[in-house]
Design goal:
Layout (H helix, E strand, L loop, with lengths): L6 E5 L4 H12 L3 E6 L6 H6 L4 E5 L5 H15 L4 E4 L14 H27 L4 E6 L12 H21 L4 E8 L6 H6 L2 H8 L10 H12 L10 E4 L7
Parallel strand pairs: 1-2, 1-4, 2-3, 4-5, 5-6, 6-7
Helix pairs in contact: 1-8, 3-4, 4-5
Length: about 250
């Protein structure tokens, strides 16, 4: 119960890695706001959490929606200790055929969404003099992936935003770090691992010879949110099992 008494907001928290992180936070004693545009089957977690979890609608590309989310979280649980900025989208396409609409969608969600969530949560953390912000990046932020110009670029920007935020907010008692998962057998990663032909081409790039499990990413998120990471700031924590990328 390393997160007992804390309140976390997890964007993209109703499915994929966000859902797994939210579930693990609840198991570790936290109260969790699972924020997304669609609730999916989040009622199962809400019921199991016995009052320590709830769903809130958010569109992370809309400043007013993000501000409302943070206020709703404080109204529900009186505080926000941890923000996990996880909401993201991927639109495949080489530069020459990537549409402006797809590019702007990735920038708006993956990068602007992280900024808007950070900006909106700061007043709720500053007056307490403490807080943890965990931005979800990707191993593709630091590796070239042909056909993923928008996703790689926005995730690389998230990592620099994380480092700058960490330096600016440390004096306020707010630590900012990022998680950079590799290929995880959940969410976007499952599309790759479920394609036998594609997975065989990727499998040899993994030192451990397997994709990651979603609970392994959740373990890392719990660490960054806990007191065990009280001296970790501005760090990009890669969770990829030793990913080799040519």
């Amino acid at each position: 119960m390393r997160l007992r008494g804390l309140t976390a907001v997890v964007t993209g928290g109703t499915r994929g890695l966000g859902r797994v992180i939210a579930e693990r936070f609840v198991d570790e004693g936290a109260s969790v706001v699972c924020a997304a545009r669609n609730p999916y089957d989040i009622d199962e977690l809400v019921e199991r959490a016995d009052g320590r979890a709830r769903y809130c609608y958010v569109d992370v590309t809309d400043p007013d929606s993000v501000d409302k989310l943070m206020h709703d979280a404080v109204d529900a649980f009186d505080r926000i200790d941890v923000l996990v900025a996880n909401a993201g989208v991927s639109r495949d396409g080489k530069v020459g055929r990537l549409s402006p609409e797809a590019w702007h969608e990735m920038v708006a969600t993956n990068l602007n969404g992280v900024y808007l969530c950070t900006h909106a949560v700061l007043p709720h953390m500053e007056h307490r003099g403490s807080g943890r912000i965990i931005n979800v990046s990707s191993s593709m932020a630091s590796r070239v992936a042909i056909g993923a110009a928008g996703y790689c670029s926005t995730k690389a920007a998230v990592e620099m935003f994380t480092r700058v935020s960490a330096m600016e907010l440390a004096a306020k008692g707010i630590l900012v770090n990022a998680l950079a998962p590799g290929i995880i057998d959940e969410g976007m990663g499952r599309d790759l691992t479920s394609n036998t032909r594609v997975w065989e081409a990727y499998r040899r790039r993994f030192a451990l010879g397997r994709p990651g499990r979603p609970d392994e990413v959740a373990d890392a998120a719990v660490f960054l949110a806990s007191e065990e990471a009280s001296y970790v700031n501005g760090h990009i924590l890669e969770v990829n099992g030793g990913l080799l990328w040519a």
